[in-house]
Amino acid sequence: MLSPLPEQTTVTFKLDWDVVSTADGDVMAGGSDILMLDEDGRIKTDYMFPGP
């Protein structure tokens, strides 16, 4: 018999991003963020990982 999953009150997801030049469209930088939302859908924690 399977046990029910505990109630989840935090949503976590990963967001990849780039900084793009408006002059020529070249990618200047980038990275990833791990966002954790609270039960109201607001950002509770943001872990930022800049890329090369």
Observed structural traits:
52 residues; mainly beta; 3-stranded antiparallel β-sheet; 0% helix; elongated
- Which residues form runs of ≥5 with pLDDT under 50? none
Number of helices: 0
**Mean pLDDT, all residues:** 87
Which secondary-structure class do the elements indicate?
A: mainly beta
Separation, N- and C-terminal Cα atoms: 48 Å
Order of helices and strands: EEE
Number of strands: 3
* Beta-strand residue fraction: over 45%
Strands of the widest sheet, in order across it, are 1-2-3
Shape, per Cα inertia axes: elongated
Largest sheet: 3 strands, antiparallel
Helix content: under 10%
Q: Tell me the Rg in angstroms.
A: 17 Å
Would you write up a description of this structure?
- With 52 residues, the protein is an all-beta fold.
- 0% of the residues lie in helices and 56% in strands.
- It has no helices and 3 strands.
- Strands 1-2-3 form a 3-stranded antiparallel β-sheet, with no helix packed on it.
- A hairpin with a 6-residue loop joins β1 and β2.
- It is elongated and about 55 Å long.
- The N and C termini lie far apart (48 Å).
- The relative contact order is 0.28.
- The mean pLDDT is 87.
